[in-house]
Amino acid sequence: MRIVGKELPRVEILEKVTGQSVFGADASVAGRILHGKLLLSPHAHARIKGIRTERAEKLTGVKAIVTAADLPDVQYGRFVRDEQYFAHDKVRYVGDRVAAVAAVDAETAAQALRLIEVDYEELPSVTSAPEAMEPGAPLIHEGFAEYFAADGVEGRAGNICSHRQIVCGDVDRAFAEADQIFEDTFHAPMVHQTYLEPHCVLARFDATGKATVWVPTQAQFPLRAAIAQILHMPMTKVRVIPTEIGGGFGGKILATVEPAAIALARKAGTPVRMVMTRGEDFQTGNPRHPFHMRYKTGVKRDGTLVAREITLVLGTGYSASSGVMISQGAAVRAPGPYRIPNLKIDSYCVYTNTATCAAYRGPAGPQLTFASESQIDMIARELGMDPLELRLKNAMEENDQTPTGAGLQDVYAKETLRKTAEVMGPPSAPGAHPRGRGMAMAHWLVGGMASSAGVKLNEDGTVAILTGVVDLSGASTSLAQITAEVLGVSLDDVHVRTADTDFAPHSTISAGSQALKSMGSAVLLAAREVERQIREVASDRLEADAGDLELDDNRVFVKGTPERGVTLREVGHLALEHRRGPIVSTQSVAQLQSHPAMTTHAAEVAVDPDTGHVEILRYVAVQDVGTAINPLSVRGQIEGGVMQGLGQALSEACTFDQGKMTNPNLLDYKIFSSLDAPEVEVHLIEHPCASGPLGAKGVGEPPIIPPPAVIANAVHDAIGVRIRELPITAEKICIALKQKSNP
Amino acid sequence: MRIVGKELPRVEILEKVTGQSVFGADASVAGRILHGKLLLSPHAHARIKGIRTERAEKLTGVKAIVTAADLPDVQYGRFVRDEQYFAHDKVRYVGDRVAAVAAVDAETAAQALRLIEVDYEELPSVTSAPEAMEPGAPLIHEGFAEYFAADGVEGRAGNICSHRQIVCGDVDRAFAEADQIFEDTFHAPMVHQTYLEPHCVLARFDATGKATVWVPTQAQFPLRAAIAQILHMPMTKVRVIPTEIGGGFGGKILATVEPAAIALARKAGTPVRMVMTRGEDFQTGNPRHPFHMRYKTGVKRDGTLVAREITLVLGTGYSASSGVMISQGAAVRAPGPYRIPNLKIDSYCVYTNTATCAAYRGPAGPQLTFASESQIDMIARELGMDPLELRLKNAMEENDQTPTGAGLQDVYAKETLRKTAEVMGPPSAPGAHPRGRGMAMAHWLVGGMASSAGVKLNEDGTVAILTGVVDLSGASTSLAQITAEVLGVSLDDVHVRTADTDFAPHSTISAGSQALKSMGSAVLLAAREVERQIREVASDRLEADAGDLELDDNRVFVKGTPERGVTLREVGHLALEHRRGPIVSTQSVAQLQSHPAMTTHAAEVAVDPDTGHVEILRYVAVQDVGTAINPLSVRGQIEGGVMQGLGQALSEACTFDQGKMTNPNLLDYKIFSSLDAPEVEVHLIEHPCASGPLGAKGVGEPPIIPPPAVIANAVHDAIGVRIRELPITAEKICIALKQKSNP
User: Fold this and answer.
1) What was the ipTM of the complex prediction?
2) Spatial separation of the C-alpha atoms in residues B309 and A338, rounded to whole Å
3) How far is CA A116 from CA A40, A51, A84, A298, in A?
């Protein structure tokens, strides 16, 4: 291949590095724009006895105030219809939306918020999912039993939103026959995506009743659907224009500020801009689910895993949102990438009085892998085996099945394990502080939602791609590479930019590692159809069979006689006079089959026993990526994923006091910064994947998954203490070391 | 049909009437925008000996100055490459572009223009085409013989840019055998489109080297091609975003201010807005060609037309532009919609020292019909025949041929004549002033350029159309009607809005009566393919044969058992999970066959012999339109065309003194206003046309064509004087009456 597989800089990079890209808050329309702000609940759980907006309305400069009364009385939610955009009768978390104000400037809007009087009757609240499951816990949705729920949402009771159980084989018998049984509990806290750009929107509502929003979103089509549902509008009256996006990581899929901004713009008759502060974003975003996990594993003396009984409790926050799906998917992936014949998995999705948790890169992945791979490490040590050998002995192979019986193809678990061990090599010399190594393996099922895309040949022989997928991590460049490859043109001759919901064909979301897999497949189909049309036009002109033609170097020519050809510029012009008309195609792909992407990470750390500081000396990430369309972009994805994973491993957690987040800022909420970052040694395993475009697998999610387990295992290897609760802070290490020396 | 054929208001009308539509000068981008202005030549013909911009550059607030030196040295033009965007060695008309300035405000830019010093050496100029053809006339393009010219541009010599001759039969013998010969000369002056919105643009040039222009254009794809050619950029680096447009009428097809604005934005590193004043627009626009016409016609005593010898001299202005095409097309249509066996037509396209003339609604139509139909009236009077009878005797019929031998189908000339006579009825009672009636018939060959369009089904069952055709006169509504008809949905459920060149598939121009004919055909194909996909998905769900299904009322159901069905909303959702993926299609149409659209107009006027004022008492327009998709829109088109035609008949002309326009403002250049407007009695002849979507013919051009001839004939009928030079002003009538009474 000429272009696919080349390390290429991103096609849009110059605009970004020169500051010309238009991000959410940069979006503008002609004329006056009002500033909108949300009034958020200060209580984790309270009844609303009344809202009085009169004083705020009288404030000079206030142009509109909206509350639940201004919106249709709609309950929404993909799996359970448990959400109302503005709180009606109750607030259910600190940050719940109560009202919104549009004013001539942000200061006036903020002042108006203080003049809105809300009578609350405080109610007992619960922010821990295990506590919310207990009898007598405060009930978050009293009317829950009446809510509409989609098929497959089972086991609803009290604050339990869903319960999925998967049973394979006979765990009781297997445990009875096991040589040794390990039982451990683990906890991973709520963590936030901390994208650079907080949620923001510019909304316009025009005379035809059409709402247009400019918004940094990962998912313009689902966002359009959500807005249409919340505001009860047809999709033809909602236009979502995605701006450039300052990070998403799953946190920019759901509707957040958009319905409020539209409602304000409609009421005020003037466009409204809303930009969340970092604190508002922390409190009202859609962070990663906290997980409580119990793993019971039975093994034979030789290291064969015979049974696992797993209980997962996921805190979904005040609404189900994607929590049901993530909880159910977690049940399938919980046993890890191993052959284990006997399984019993219970996965609970539980309401709590916090913001709704939803997708964060590799949903449930880091939490489950932290638990599962920590325990695998503990088992190996207890059995006196090399953890690598234990993993190799039990790792999934081609045609193995998931716990639900789905067959798996393109399984390269062992190859990632062996490559990781090879790269790590022999232990390094000792240093000032105790050193240790850790390893963890994970799998991710990369499927693909349905997508469609267009490709057209311009009259000058250049090519444009029409897609609705937002470019978060280099997807545009890879889509351009695929198209350039098929049509035999240079990358410079391909234009790709995201169209909005009015103009783009229906596109997948930029999440779930599928921007390239799903959209790339649609683009590939469309490019091949455009290639067919080019051959048709050229075939007539050259009086040669279409099948005898070759496309290369921006020309079409007869194979073997390159001088008998036409340029694509000529073809582009000819097509307009030819019996077929302009050369263009839009093609769709259905949902794509899931293939497991395997990844193994390993690290060497040094732990300062006095301070508890963990220094990462080496970090190796080996990932099975199918075909790497743009290896530069793939490596970047993996490096970025590792960094986020290391933040979750070592420092990140949303902390709460009575439902109120105590660290909603980037000083107290500690993400992994470039100063903390180790060099990541990335190695790609490339075997073309049957269901991806030109063999590509999705690559975005897997790299964020192993780091917490890797670090936990490396820390244990270094200093002999096992941390079962993320993050692995210096404080926890110091306490554990103290407990170890004074048991 | 449920929706096609209904009189419906325009889908976008609410935005327009509430002032929310974004027109060219309303376009905005975030951040500072500079103001650009063009330095125009004050001379009709002069050599440029030097340009000094130093003083202007030093003016505070000036950010960029560009001249020919800043642009690639490119000569361009569709038929003859005789244009340079900025004048190099010579200026060739008053208004020729010499330089452009971008400054912080319009006043500073204007002041800077005055500081640019240009050394001109004035040259003799010529603004009349017949004079420009004379030996010894000043040569406008010295290097003309070396310029690239497209195939078919023949007879180049001196200032003659092209000469086309068409000969059929033997005119000399036919004249020898004729009973009577009529020989007359006619003149139609240059007239301007006088759209409400002068030319304007907002241009941005970004770090990736991409130029984006927001511009009210009728022809975004040709404009992109022109910009790419002038600035030597690939089409992927030029994005044309069409704004709403305040009228075009053919005057917004060519590049005008856009390349200057891009060059300024590139040099200044800041977006630039340019808005022409009315005076600048008058002097630098692309008005209708002035025509000098000599018609020699031989007839038999019974009224049979046996021969016509026609000489047409078209003044194209300083460049060929579309003048060659219009001159060549005029040759084909010059004999009028009659069977005339012997023809000799010479059509000359001639350079003059004026702005380039180009397309104006029905190019060459009003001029030719004024000459041809005035003479038909004169012949009838001379032979003592009713002009209606003379026309009926000679009118074209089905399968007749054009002078170049193209066969004509769907010919309804006689039906329009008879219908017009029927509607006019018997003469009205005499009034205070002499009354008279006139009639004229015209034909227009409506073809269609290649186009492509997309249609998609949203997940909620609503429908979006993806088109790049600009909506000048209700095309969007008709495209929505066609789609709603095919898919069985209501008009409210169809969204149609013009996408820009990056996102729209290649689209025809909104001119030449083909926005609906060509784009409608592409939309119809795409809608039918979407219908097929809907049937496919519904067929699986309903377990019924796709062919047994019916689409109506936003549902798909089994014919005869409407309760066995699914809603389109369900189909839209299902498709995303179905093996076919999202429902979307993009389809292309090639160039479409030309069908003659026939129209006959008649008027009754009263002429005040003292003042020369012509009062229009009645005006009847009968037009063959194929299927009227939206009769309200069709009638609106016809009424508007008649008004513009009446302006050309009675008051409009660009007047010059030494190449300088003497009436470049709407006080001195008199368009027909709503105070002058008669009620127009519109009657549609509907016979579905084979080459149009659902039988539609283009309707935009024909109604502007007959009015000058109709008024000339009616004035003659009233007061017995024949005006052979447009416009038929009160002054000309008074002079003619005086000459008649004192010959």
Assistant:
1) 0.93
2) 93
3) 11, 7, 20, 59
CA distance B359 to B378: 30
- CA A518 vs. chain centroid, Å, equals 15
Please name the member of B22, B236, B575 whose beta carbon is closest to the beta carbon of A458: B236
Residue B585: strand pairing partners: B455
User: pLDDT tens digit string along A552-581?
Assistant: 999 999 999 999 999 999 999 999 988 889
Q: Any catalytic annotation for residue A731?
A: no
Do the chains contact at B459 and A493, CB–CB below 8 Å?
A: no
Considering CB atoms only, which of A18, A206, A466 is closest to B503?
A: A466
Nearest CA to B327 among B300, B279, B367? B367
Q: State the count of interchain CB pairs (< 8 A) between A and B.
A: 178
**Chain A nearest C-alpha distance from B602 (Å):** 39
Decide if A581 and B589 are in contact by the 8 Å CB cutoff.
yes
Q: Token pair of B295, please?
A: 């018609």
* A29 chain-B contacts, CB cut-off 8 A: 28
With b for 16 or more beta-carbon neighbours within 10 A and e for fewer, the B157-178 pattern comes to ebbbbbbbebebeebeebbeeb
How many whole angstroms separate alpha carbon B253 and alpha carbon B233?
A: 19
Spatial separation of the C-alpha atoms in residues A110 and A88, rounded to whole Å: 22
Conformation bin of residue A385: beta by default, left when phi > 0, alpha when psi is -120 to 50:
beta
Cβ of B18 within 8 Å of Cβ of A207? The answer is yes
Interchain CB distance below 8 Å, A28 and B28: yes
pLDDT, tens only, B531-566: 999 999 999 999 999 999 999 999 999 999 999 999
What is the maximum span of chain B, computed from C-alpha positions, in angstroms?
89
Tell if the CB–CB gap between B234 and A493 is shorter than 8 Å: yes
Residue of B20, B494, B576 with shortest CB distance to A206: B20
Q: Sort out which chain B residues have CB atoms less than 8 A from A449's CB and list them.
A: 576
Q: What's the pTM value of the predicted model, to 2 decimals? A: 0.95
Residue type, B496: V
Q: Cα(A377)–Cα(A716) distance, rounded to whole angstroms?
A: 9
3-class DSSP state of A461: coil
Q: Considering the candidates B117, B142, B701, B731, report the single residue annotated as catalytic.
A: B701
What tokens were used for A190? 């709520």
Cβ distance B82 to B319 under 8 Å? yes
CA distance A30 to B579: 44
- Residue B213 Cα, gap to closest chain A Cα (Å): 16
Tokens of B604: 């009754």
Q: How far apart are CA B213 and CA B239, in angstroms?
A: 6
Q: How many CA atoms lie within 13 A of B92 on its CB side?
A: 24
Please answer yes or no on whether B579 and A588 come within 8 Å at the CB atom. no
**Residues B607-641 pLDDT 10s:** 999 999 999 999 999 999 999 999 999 999 999 99
Of B310, B266, B322, B303, which Cα lies nearest the Cα of B83?
Answer: B322
Mutation target among B241, B574, B588 for the A interface, most CBs of A within 10 A: B588
Return the ∠ at Cα B27 (arms to B23 and B28), rounded to 5°.
Answer: 165
| CA angle in degrees (0–180, nearest 5) for A183-A188-A192 | 165
| Burial track B50-68 (b if 16+ CB lie within 10 A, e otherwise) | ebebeebeebeebbbbbbb
Determine, for residues B506 and A576 on separate chains, whether the beta-carbon distance falls below 8 Å: yes
Beta-carbon separation of B12 and A579 below 8 A: no
Interface test with A, best of B76, B236, B691 (most A CBs within 10 A): B236
Q: A-chain residues within 8 Å CB-CB of B503?
A: 466, 499, 503-504
- Residue B331: pLDDT band by 50, 70, 90 thresholds? very high
DSSP state of A290: P
